[in-house]
Structures are given as C-alpha cells and as structure tokens.
Amino acid sequence: MTNPIIIGIDPGYDRLGWAVAQKNPGAWHIFDQGCIVTDRQEEIEQRFQQILDDLSAIIQRYQPQEAAVETLFWFKNQSSAMKVSEARGLIIANLLDAGIKISQYTPLQIKQAITGYGRADKKAVEKMVRLELAIDQNEAKNIIDDTFDALALVICHQASRKLKKI
How far apart are CA 6 and CA 96, in angstroms? Predict the structure, then answer.
C-alpha cells in the first residue's frame, strides 16, 4: 500500500504555510511548499478569498488525499485569534469540499513527534525537519517559519499514521 499525498497547513490569515509531500520507501518526496501571504492593506474578506483561491489551486494541482492542520493555540491578541480561527474554518471547509481526510494536531503534538520533546523551540523543530526531509542549510535559508511548520505537520501526520497503522 502506498502512502498518501499529504498536505500540511499552518493556518493564518496573514501568512499560511503549506507543504505537499509523500513518504516513499526510504525517502520523502516533497512535491512543493510555500506560504500564502495576503496583503495587509486589503479587507479581511479579500484576504480570505485569496487564501481560498490559492489553497484550491494547490489542492487541484497536487490532489492530496490527507491533510494535517495545526490547531489553534493560546493567543494574546483576541482579534488576531478570531481571524485565524475564521481562516481555519475556511481552510477546513475547503479541504472537506475537496474530499480530503483531515487530521488536526496541537503545537505540542507536532513538537513531540518531530523532536521527541513537546516544549522544543522553533530552531530544534526546524533542525529535525531539515534532517528528516534532507533539506540542506542553503535551501533552508529560503524557507520561512510558516512553511517549516507545514513541513513539520506532514512529518507529524505520517508518524501518526504509522502509529495508528492507517
């Protein structure tokens, strides 16, 4: 049985990290990765529309079967938390509409799966993602945090699948 193509999504309305990958025997195949960056000058509705349009294009292009989406964590800014929550709702609806199986992971679960320590810092997560996916340091310089988070979600989901023997 071949492993599914997985899309990892680090939700946001300002920046949304995404990665599409598949675990093959012995190695990962990263189809693509990136970050949807919305224009801060636009109204929130236009920003949400951009997220929907861009994410739909990614889904259509790569046809992932499963998705790993980060859950919300504590926000100091309530207004920001509401917008991220609304963006997550749009993202989940988009994935459901495409018939993609969704799994959601907390930051603690992701860090635990990637580093073995749920309170690991971003640098430790990034290092382990680079090692697991064989991303060299020069290539890593061109990958922003949100995209590394999406790559971590893909790895976390595959590890979870393996544990559940899906």
Answer: 14
